[in-house]
Design goal:
Length: about 325
């Protein structure tokens, strides 16, 4: 991989225009979305998309999410089922990805879909993502802008830490408001199936449809790339802890009743939205603290399982899973 001079651009119209021309030139451009920072490239350009996998050191060609500015643009790439249409009308732009049948002749690189007959597609809400994709005028393939297997970036600095020298540009749009990747739904016929919990809770999605949404299991569709040991910090992680033990760093949630330990609190008031926004930054900070302090384990407080808690627990379980065991 060439040692690129990674440029940090501000989110001014000038910065975004420069980033847009880099996309046109086939470069990889990191940009903010409301969920996490994405590493974008022209979804119709094989070499540009291959550059994403190279920059991330992604070992296998998992399908990528395609980002467009609105539902009309999405219709040119995917066939919407009635329930998918209903959800898109209500939740786009926003942290929801729909996996739908790919429209033949959509013109996307096969690397984006990993050769599948489906496409994962979403309309991001972040104004910088909107102007970048709008200015570019085409579909932008973008996974999270981190090295494969690492925690997703929620600031431009996180992106820089992981990908400096490996990508052309990072557009700095400040910290991401949601802080967790999008919720991914697949459809088996018109029945929605949860492929990845994320920035919109299952309760809210089910409410809109007036029905339960099933979890994907091995017999339905799966989301390739959802490896068990993903988002791996170097420190060991102990979940559902009541309190830190000796030698542990503490990641709290809710009031820290009398706990005095080094660490952070995801949300002292016990707010799951705030906890989601802080999660990946906190894991990075505590991992760094683990290195510098010699404390090698992070104890994490129990996080409620409802609302965004489901996605938070999903990411924490991946962070705590044994390393490299099932990484491909
Ligand atoms: O919030 C997000 O979703 C962020 C921002 C940048 O938009 N993106 C993101 O992308 O998290 P990534 O590559 O880290 O996760 C994309 C996952 C794939 O690993 C795969 O599980 C699923 O989306 N996916 C994409 N296309 C799919 C398809 N056609 N069929 C099944 N799963 C698909
Ligand atoms: Mg990712």
């Amino acid at each position: 991989m060439a040692d690129l001079n990674t440029v940090l651009l501000s989110d001014t119209s000038r910065g975004i225009r420069a980033a847009t021309s880099m996309l046109h030139a086939g470069a990889q451009v990191a940009f903010p979305t409301e969920t996490v920072y994405g590493l974008g490239a022209d979804a119709r350009n094989d070499r540009a998309v291959a550059g994403i996998f190279e920059a991330k050191r992604r070992p296998s060609f998992n399908p990528l999410i395609v980002h467009v500015t609105d539902l009309d643009a999405a219709h040119t790439l995917a066939r919407f089922t009635p329930q998918a249409q209903n959800l898109a009308e209500r939740f786009w732009p926003g942290p929801l990805t729909l996996v739908l049948p790919l429209r033949p002749g959509a013109g996307l690189s096969d690397l984006v879909t990993a050769g599948l007959p489906t496409i994962g597609i979403r309309v991001p809400a972040h104004p910088v993502a909107q102007s970048l994709i709008g200015g570019f005028g085409g579909p932008v393939a973008a996974p999270s802008a981190n090295l494969s297997g690492k925690v997703s970036p929620t600031t431009a600095e996180h992106v820089f830490d992981g990908l400096r020298g490996r990508i052309a540009v990072v557009v700095d749009g400040g910290p991401c408001a949601v802080g967790l990747e999008s919720t991914i739904l697949g459809f088996s016929a018109d029945d929605p199936v949860l492929l990845r919990p994320g920035g919109i809770s299952l309760e809210i999605l089910s409410q809109r449809l007036g029905r339960e949404i099933a979890y994907a299991d091995d017999t339905t569709i799966t989301a390739p790339g959802q490896m068990r040991s993903h988002y791996a910090p170097s420190a060991e992680i102990r979940l559902n802890a009541e309190a830190p033990e000796d030698g542990e760093i503490w990641l709290g949630f809710g009031p820290d009743r009398g706990i005095v330990a080094e660490g952070r609190n995801l949300s002292p008031s016990g707010d799951l939205t705030e906890a989601a926004a802080n999660l990946f930054s906190a894991l990075r900070d505590l991992d760094a603290l683990a290195w510098s302090s010699g404390l090698r384990r992070i104890a994490v407080a129990k996080i409620p399982a409802h609302g965004l808690g489901e996605a938070i627990n999903d990411r924490l379980q991946r962070a705590a899973a044994p390393r490299n065991e099932d990484e491909t």
